[in-house]
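Appendix B, Record 12. Input sequence as logged:
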Amino acid sequence: WWKFRNRWWFDTTSPLGLNVCMSGSATSCEECLLIHPSCAWCAQEDFGRGRTLTSRCDFVQNLHKRGCQSRFVEYPTSSITVQQNMPLSSKGSGLTQQDVVQIRPQRISLSLRPGDKMSNSTFDNPI
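Logged structural output:
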């Protein structure tokens, strides 16, 4: 286990000791992030120069050990922010039909890591 950006991570190697991030031979940040949720990409321009192991796709901890500075590590996480969450109402409780609230929340903002999925079951909707 190791800590990065206030989250705890575990090393995701296979039983044979193979690194899942490097086994995909990603050539772009997007390809790397799609391999596995634990993979990160080093965008540092001079990363890997003069080394035989030059993969920019690896676990965050390994990228740091190999000289990638934290500010160049691309490791997006998915997040959801509820922007409007008014209480449910019945047909007769609003001044107009437009005032009736039948779903919660009414407005959200999503930021998804490539490959992540979110379902409507994330919210408790009684519809």
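The chain has three helices and seven strands.
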